[in-house]
Amino acid sequence: MKILMTTLSVLALSIMAAAHVQAADAPIRILLVTGGCCHDYDFQTKAMQKALKDQGVAAEWKVVNEGGKGTQAEIPLYENPEWAYGYDVVIHNECFANTTDPTYIRKITGPHKAGVNAVVIHCAMHTYRAADIDDWRELLGVTSRHHEHQSEYPVKAVAKDHPIMKDFPADYKSAKDELYIIEKIWPNTEVLATSISEKTGKLNPVFWTNRYGKARVFGTTYGHSSATFDDPVFLRTLSRGIQWAAGDKRE
User: Fold this and answer.
1) Of 2, 41, 58, 63, which is least packed with CB atoms within 10 Å of its CB?
2) Which candidate, 65, 63, 87, 66, places its Cα nearest to that of 75?
3) pTM of the entire structure?
4) CATH assignment at residue 145
5) Domain count, the chain
6) Residue 177 contacts by C-beta under 8 Å, 6 or more apart in sequence?
7) What is the DSSP string of 207-251?
8) With contact defined as beta carbons under 8 Å apart, do 250 and 21 qualify?
9) How far is CA 103 from CA 17, 108, 136, 162, 209, in A?
10) Rounded to 5 degrees, what are φ and ψ at 35?
């Protein structure tokens, strides 16, 4: 009987180990929500997809580009309460600054708070900035309402041991891009890297992680220009951020 129980225990552990390996090897299931004002979203989408592929990361993508090219939209995707079901991570790369309806915004933040992991890029930080509620800003992990001019900003890693920042170049400068001014860092945010304002000399987070409810979030304020989405250091960091954010669903 003791031998049988030992055999069953070993078998169970083997099955669990095999399942873990299979989960780790499975493609990352990504929902990319993109569109709105001011950017070449088709180019950025293709650049992200290629970057993950070049890093050897298997991914299954669903891309939703709705809402037109303005600053205000309520896209049909979020009308379905299960809009995020089945994805390891949702990438928000949309730009709708003047959408303000609290009920609509909470259709987005609710699933994230319940455990849907996220990556937030550039103008996602200014999306819903005209809204009175803070739900979206708490999901982002930072609050920003404006940006400074485009420049090639030095980027300093401040969390060098974080897996996202592994081997990040000490002398790295961004491609020509906007610097978003961060007015608030939310309590569950860990700043990974910063850039200095050329106007004020103040530090601003440019890469970070956040915990929002049961979800984990990776964010970057860079991502305005096509040059940024052609920059290998940015793309490698973004790819690692996507992998990190998806991790809770794959561990």
Assistant:
1) 2
2) 66
3) 0.89
4) 3.40.50.880
5) 1
6) 150, 151, 152, 153, 222, 223, 224, 225, 227, 228
7) EEEEEETTEEEEEES---STTGGG-HHHHHHHHHHHHHHHHHHH-
8) no
9) 42, 9, 12, 36, 26
10) 120, 175
